[in-house]
Amino acid sequence: MNETLASENPSTTVDAEPQRPALLFKYLDAQGAAGMLYNGNLQFTNATKFNDPFDCHPGLIDFSKISQEQAKPWGVQDTILLKSNPYERNRNEAWICCLSKVNHSLPMWTFYAKDHTGVCIGLDVEKVNANLQSGRGYIGLHNFSGCYDVQYRDIIDKPDFFERDNQDFFYYQMLTKAKVKFTLSKLPRCFKPLASR
Fold this sequence. Notes:
By secondary structure, the protein is α+β, with helices and mostly antiparallel strands. The chain has one domain (4-192). It is 26% helix and 18% strand. The strands form four sheets. Strands 4-5-10-7 form a four-stranded antiparallel beta sheet. Strands 1-2 form a two-stranded antiparallel ribbon. The longest helix is centred in the middle third of the chain and has 18 residues, at 76-93. The chain is elongated and about 55 Å long.
């Protein structure tokens, strides 16, 4: 499943090829780690519950540049609502597990391992994928999609939805984060695809 979204501006390109490192890491507080190990599962968080309110937001895509021809037969506002609504649903229905490729990131220890008092658990990606794909212990995760690298970019320069012949922006939406002064690098995401995908 390789989906590349490109435009004249290379900053809007997303290579949505699943990553297959041998180990990925999950930073947790002690209580979360105990629960994960006891229950033998991973925490998937709804995209609307992330700390960053713009994470996975449909506002990452520009739906405003619509021609009168593209707006037929419903008109500009109704067409924009019709075309942007699936991306609103993507965010509302996406369940994402955020991981790391490194186990020694001080910012990760600070943010996700309760101010350096938690733990970092290494996960054998092959075994995690096998368990998730089989559905053993993971209710409803038979369509596990693999892990994909988060792309940090300047989100002011949004890709134009209507310029791309209605290309599917699912991976762009799920994997794009705003580039900030301090950026956490090497953060793959695993997500359960939506039933409609």
